[in-house]
Every structure is written in C-alpha cells, then in structure tokens.
Amino acid sequence: MNYSLFDFLQLVGSLGIFIFGMKIFSDGLQKVAGSRLREILKGMTRNRITGVLTGFGTTAITQSSSTTTVMVVSFVNAGLMTFVESTGVIMGANIGTTITAWLVAIFGFKFQITSVAIVAIGLFFPFLFVSNIKLRNVAEAMIGFGILFIGLDFIKDAVPNISDNPEMFAFLDRYTDFGIFSTLLFVVVGTVLTLLTQSSSAATAITLVMLVQGWITFPIAAAMVLGENIGTTVTANIAAIVGNVHAKRAARFHFFFNVIGVIWMLLILTPFLHLVDNIIASFSQIDYSVLTDTSDEGRATATLALSLFHTLFNVFNVILMFAFVPLIIRFVEYIQPDRGGADDIFRLEYISAGLMSSSELSIAQARKELGLFARLVEKMHYSFTGLLFKEKKRRDRFLKKIAKREEITDRLEIEIAEYLVRVSENSTLSTEAVRRVRSMQAMINDLERVGDLYFQMSKSFERLMESQEEFPEEAKEELREMLDAVHDTIILMKENIALPSIKVDLNKAIEAENKVDDLRNRLRNTHYQRLESGKYSVQMGIVYLDILNRLEKIADHVINVSEAASGKTMKQIRQQAD
Fold first, then answer.
1. Considering the domain 359-577 in this protein, what is its CATH number?
2. Residue 195: pLDDT band by 50, 70, 90 thresholds?
3. Tell me, what DSSP letter sits at residue 125?
C-alpha cells in the first residue's frame, strides 16, 4: 500500500481548509444579509408553505442548514416563533442545503475553478481593509468561496489513488456487496461522517470526492447522502438541550422528519436512482449510465447525478410528508411533553443557544434579553407592592420571591455582559454596533442595581415586620402613590427597550421621572410632619424614608436605561427642547 501517515495528514488538512473556507463563505454571506435574516425568518412563517420558502431562502443565503435550524430553535425557545411555524422553515432548510452540493459538483468537478478561485481571492483581498463594512463582508464571502474550492482541489489530490492502493479499495469493496445491508451500513457511515465534520455540506463534498475518485459507486454515495441528512439534525438537537420544551420539539421534529424521509427513500431507492439516471442521461445527452459507468467522464457526471438525487429526495420528502406534518407534530408533542413548571425555571431565553451567526443577530438577541430583564424588574416591583399591601400571611412568600429574583438579576447581569463581550470581540463591528453594545452594557448594570434596591427595601420592611409595627394608612397611601409613579417609569422603560433607538421618545420618560422626584420631595415633608407630631415611631420613620429614597433611586436608574436605549444623553434631549 502506497499511502503514508503524512499523506493522511494532508487529507485531514485539506478537509480543514475546505471547512474553513465554507465557514468564512457562510459567515460573510450572513454578515451581508445582517439583521434581515431574523426579519425573514420571523416575518415569512405565516403558514407551512411560506415557511418552506423561508427556510429554503435563508439556507441559500447562509449556505448552512445547521445555521438555519439552530436559529429556528433559538427563536422558538425565545418565543419569536411557534413550534408549528418552525416546521415549515426546517423542511425548507433541507432543500436549501442541497445548493452546496450543486456548487461543488458543477464548479469543483466539471470546471477547473482553482485558478479562478485564486484570482477571486486576489481581487477581493484588498477590500478587507476598506472602511465600508458591507464591502468588507462581500470580500470576506468571496475569499471564503475561493478557499472552499482550493480546499476541495487539495482533497481530490490527497485522496488515495485507486491504482496505487488496490488494497484499500478491496477493503472498501468488501462491504458493498451485501444488498440492503450495505446500503444501511453506508447510511450509518454518512451519518457518522456528518457528526465528525459537524457539517452536512462538508460531508457531502467528501462523498462527491470519493465518488469522482472511484472509491464508491453512485448507489453507495446516495446511501451516504441519506445518512448525511440524518446527521445534520444533530446540531439543532444539541442547541436545544438548553432550550425550553418548544425548542426541543422543533429539534426533534427535524430529526424525525428526516429519518422518516430516509426510511421511505430506502424502500424505493433502486427505482429512484434509475429515475435520476434517466433524467441525467436526457439532459446531458450521454449514452451511458452513471449507475455502472466507471470512466473518468462517467464519474464526473455521477457527481451531478448525486446532487440531483440529493435535491429530488428533499423536495419529494417535503411534498409527500407535507400532509403528515400535523401527525408528526402530535407525535413529537407526545414524546416531548410540556411538564409545566419545569420549563418555567429561570434561563436565558434569547441568547441561550450562544452567539448567533452574525453580530447583528447577536445584538438583536441581546436586546430582546434586556426586555426580559426589564420584565423581571417589573415583577419585583409587583412583589414589593404585594409585600406592603397584601395580607400579612402572604408576606413571607413575597420576601422569598424578591430574594430569588434578586439572585436572578445578578446572574442575568453577568451572563448578558459576558455575551456582549463576546459580541464586541468581533473586529468587523461597525461604529454604530459598538455604540449599541456599550449602551446595553450600561443598561444591564442599571437594571441589576434596580433589583438590588427592591431587595434592600424588602429587608428594611422585614425589620419593621419583626417589630410588629405597621405604617399608618396615610403613610401607606403615600407609598402606594410613589409606587404607582415609579411603575409608570418602568412601563416606559420596557417600551423604550423594545423600540429601535431612533424611535425612542425620551420626553415621556423624563416627565415620569420628574414626577417621581417632585413626589419624593413632597412626601418627605409629610414624613417629617408625622415624625414631629408623634404619629409613628422613629424606627418606622427611618424605614419609610429609606423606602421613599430608594424608590426615587430606582426611578433614576430606570431613566438611565431609557437614555441608553435612545442612544442620546439627557443633555442632548434638553438642548433639543431648548
């Protein structure tokens, strides 16, 4: 055998160049698309048909079905998309992923594209250093495209030559003559290959190289492609591990949809391959069968036939399974039941699956997470209000809720901040994106501080509870008025976080915060009057004043969040007003 360890390492390195090129190509395309990817996914899933088209289009843009399905799982987990809406996108992603096989088959084997790829890299390389971010992203995509095909050419050269290594071919050929068992074996090989490369596109490219080099026949290559369709579902299932029940269901649906498709295709594989052979023969004007021809020209044509098989299988699978999707959904819901409270435990929702495929998407996800942070702060406000005004027997429960939520705010601050740091490490961030990241860092700091203030107020009131004292009705009504005024600022803050920076109107938030300041000053005077007239004890007066001052501080932090959400400073707003 004429194949050394060094030759094998060359093959591994060639595969690494191919996968690296594919990643750069995919990342560049996603950056060019920017935040429109999320808008496409969210806005075009009204029914399963538009969902299929959306999944196909998004995968065609990203050149990665794994990216699309992981995004879908993340959006389902975050509540941006329902489980049922996700099914159409997943089916479309299966069709979209076949485009890569066509690119490789046409440009990698039918044409000598390596020299063109090198020229493309040379042409676009200087644009990596221009200030225009969109042009840089296009250049990155084109350079990735070039590296991809250079890697493919290296793979072709690194794969062992059959004539020089007959023992290796004999070993492989030993497992190809067991009929359906050989087919099943290579379905498993295709699945494992996809798991190892973590890319169905890379696995398909390897299969095409093995086919064109004569290591495997067309039917065996088709079986490997079927296995790769199963292997590609694993990435989304891994991403769903940390997700809620709906995200898990979306990932499980992808798995079962592809497995069922592979099963029915295995039952009719032989006649289906003959159909593909006849279509290729008709369009290519050839007088041989890709099923049996082992010449160089026959193997090159077989790569087109394999790409056609890959596309037709996924298209027919969507068409045939379309009517049975509700049954698959019910089956997935049965094996992945909603356990109620188990999924209500705190977790990051929008950024739980890690960084998105582009910085714009990651920033949008972090902004959504801040919206949940603001909702948590509002829940703490409700809990503190309940602590003051609900019946005494429920106070311990409110104290526990506030303490638990304060711990959650600490974790949220750390985890969102770490996520934003990872986003900011991307050297291609625009100046505007950097500003937004920094604004969000300031926002999470203020939101966490608000959580601390509610917790501190609850501890002050707990000390009053231990002394068995109660606020007089007059003081209670004043605190209720103050709490309502602070709540108004929180509502405006939530609205501002949900809006794009350009649409944030700070004037309302400023008015609400000024109202809190004025109310604090007025109530502080009434507090001193009560204290001087002996209407409550000094200890009660200290607790009252402590709560009053901390509520005013909460309003200060809340207006800071609205200010950061607007991208403007209070000074700029006042100058505009003047």
1. 1.20.58.220
2. confident
3. G
